[in-house]
Design brief:
hydrolase activity; Citrulline utilization hydrolase CtlX; about 30% helix; 15 strands; 3-stranded mixed sheet; alpha/beta; about 350 residues; Amdntrnsf_FN0238; 11 helices
Length: about 350
């Protein structure tokens, strides 16, 4: 299977979710609450959406690690991809965050879980750059091609190119930075709202890169290994069509398959030919998260992928694997779990 699509994810169940006032100034995708909707009602609706996403991913055969957050001072904690990324070879990165009230979203218990259940060799922590006003907000600021080892980044104060180059040196990626703006000339705040990279397909709003030469370089780099590039429009970006992520799931019979996770709003914005191009290699899993999208992020922002090797299977998993093999000796899931143990 491809290194691009993780088979496990981390989600944060933010019980006090609200659109973050500290990020509204530079996040053009953020919206106000509907008139008359209370903070409590907003939080309850968001919780239901978070649970729906977790259920949908589990239903697609993706391993889901959910962490609860009851802290009312962390309204954006539902978006862990901004402070955490994991990488093959046991590498983990922790990132510097622009908004001061987001910096305590970083959680030791998440890192401890990763170390206990997966093989973690090195944690590289860039958060010490925050006092110097230097930020790189994880896989929000970067869209990573784990196969070709390219880090795509739209320049902004949330994606400093110096720390981008430092990350690429530490983790073995080629930096590809560019300017990206909307039709009003407003810079894109996070790269992952304008595009995502899968194993065999990428969605990207290339029209939002004003430099034509750089635009063609990005297009060529995305497609160099035969990947299909589905170009999306600025209008579709505003519907969060670019904020998707490819994952690796398992069917009920244990067969591995790729899924493209996105919001239902994003899915509705896609044309039939774009859907067909995605479904050549992925099945689309979409969930309605209109409350969470008020905060200016969508499904990709909610998911921190786990690109790490698992440690030995637990005793319960081994028992389940043996039972599955007894019932069906050809079950791939049973063989894989048993092999891990």
């Amino acid at each position: 299977m491809s290194a691009q699509a993780p088979s496990a994810v981390v989600l944060v169940r933010a019980e006090r979710f609200l659109p973050n006032p500290a990020t509204a100034a530079d996040n053009a995708f953020q919206s106000d609450l509907p008139a008359g909707q209370s903070d409590e009602e907003t939080a309850l609706k968001a919780l239901a959406e978070m649970d729906a996403l977790a259920d949908a991913l589990r239903g697609a055969g993706v391993r889901v690690h959910v962490f609860s957050d009851e802290d009312h001072t962390r309204p954006d904690s539902v978006f862990p991809n901004n402070w955490l990324s994991t990488h093959a070879g046991g590498m983990v990165a922790v990132y510097p965050m622009y908004a001061s009230n987001r910096r305590h979203e970083r959680r030791a218990d998440v890192l401890e879980m990763l170390k206990s259940e997966y093989r973690v060799q090195t944690i590289v922590d860039y958060s010490g750059l925050e006092p110097d006003g230097i930020f790189l907000e994880g896989t929000g600021a970067m869209v990573l091609d784990h196969v070709s080892r390219v880090a795509y980044a739209a320049r902004s104060h949330r994606a400093d190119t110096h720390v981008l180059e430092r990350f690429c040196t530490d983790f073995g990626y080629e930096p590809m930075a560019f300017d990206a703006v909307d039709s009003d000339g407003v810079p894109v705040y996070h790269t992952n709202v304008i595009g995502c990279v899968g194993t065999d397909v990428a969605l990207f709003a290339l029209e939002m890169i004003p430099d034509k030469h750089r635009r063609e370089q990005v297009r060529e780099r995305l497609s160099v290994n035969g990947r299909t590039v589905v170009e999306i429009s600025e209008e579709q970006v505003r519907e969060f069509a670019g904020n998707a992520v490819e994952l690796c799931g398992r069917t009920a019979t244990g067969k591995r398959h790729y899924v493209m996770a996105m919001s239902e709003r994003a899915r509705r914005s896609l044309r039939p030919d774009q859907v067909a191009a995605i479904e050549e290699s992925c099945s689309i899993v979409s969930v309605e998260i209109q409350t969470i999208e008020l905060a200016g992020g969508s499904v990709r922002c909610m998911i921190a992928g786990v690109h790490l090797d698992r440690r030995r299977a637990t005793e319960t998993e081994l028992t389940e694997a043996v039972e599955a093999i007894d019932e069906d000796p050809h079950t791939a899931d049973g063989r894989d779990v048993a092999a891990e143990g």
